[in-house]
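Good morning,

Attaching, inline, the backbone tokens for the sequence recovery test we're adding to the shared suite. The designed sequence is right after.
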């Protein structure tokens, strides 16, 4: 894919979008929870601002309450279609108005401990390889229970760091087990980290593509990209904090935040 006119040959202009819905099943209105004194969406916004590569950040939301909350702490928010079927569609809606941006990063709104370095890495992957249209991250899996959990999405990738497949199933599956297999280096098993960087033009193409057969089967949107024949770069981070989905997740975050602030 060609580089947008006017961009430097080494550094592309990137922008970060945080899709944020008010509705959530397991933890109602979670982005507005504020037991720490700050809303969850503010924590995520401030974490995302630690990245050095993006030229800016905004929240793409479907609800006035989140819009007003983001404005209250000085953040930028954009109202998007309440009927948008996914966060990717919400991010693409914002991207249509960012004609001078080369790379769009999708950060989930419930990731208050996200490291700025992770955002910078996923952007750098696309800066360094102009042939890829999308990049994401993975982190090693170090125990069998996590590897077998369908909620833990696994990814396998080739020697150039390009994704071969994403699955809820345990992959790769060893034909013969070895003692300590989950502690071998380099790691044999990786969990997918749901942080995405897209070339802007490709993101708009992706949002217009219908769900693919494997995507519908596994309920993993990134499989739409692979089935269409595109490449996804995968960067590996040693550790990563994951999103807040349940009351237990949120309590753990509040306790950790309180201990840091003490």
């Amino acid at each position: 894919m060609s580089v947008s006119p006017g961009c430097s040959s080494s550094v592309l202009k990137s922008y970060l979008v945080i899709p944020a819905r008010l509705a959530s099943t397991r933890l109602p209105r979670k982005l507005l929870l504020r037991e720490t004194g700050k809303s969850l969406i503010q924590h995520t916004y401030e974490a995302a601002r630690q990245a050095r590569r993006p030229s800016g950040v905004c929240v793409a939301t479907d609800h006035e309450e989140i819009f007003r909350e983001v404005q209250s702490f000085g953040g930028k928010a954009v109202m998007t279609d309440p009927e948008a079927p996914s966060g990717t569609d919400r991010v693409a809606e914002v991207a249509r108005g960012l004609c001078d941006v080369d790379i769009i990063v999708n950060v989930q709104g419930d990731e208050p401990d996200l490291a700025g370095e992770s955002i910078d890495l996923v952007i750098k992957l696309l800066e360094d390889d102009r042939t890829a249209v999308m990049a994401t991250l993975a982190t090693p899996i170090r125990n069998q229970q996590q590897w077998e959990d369908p909620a833990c999405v696994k990814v396998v990738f080739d020697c150039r760091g390009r994704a071969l497949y994403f699955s809820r199933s345990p992959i790769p599956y060893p034909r013969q087990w070895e003692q300590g297999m989950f502690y071998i280096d380099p790691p044999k098993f990786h969990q997918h980290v749901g942080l995405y960087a897209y070339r802007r033009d490709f993101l708009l193409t992706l949002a217009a593509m219908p769900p693919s057969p494997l995507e519908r089967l596994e309920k993993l949107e990134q499989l739409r990209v692979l089935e269409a024949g595109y490449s996804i770069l995968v960067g590996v981070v040693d550790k990563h904090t994951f999103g807040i989905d349940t009351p237990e997740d949120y309590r753990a975050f509040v306790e950790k935040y309180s201990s840091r602030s003490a």
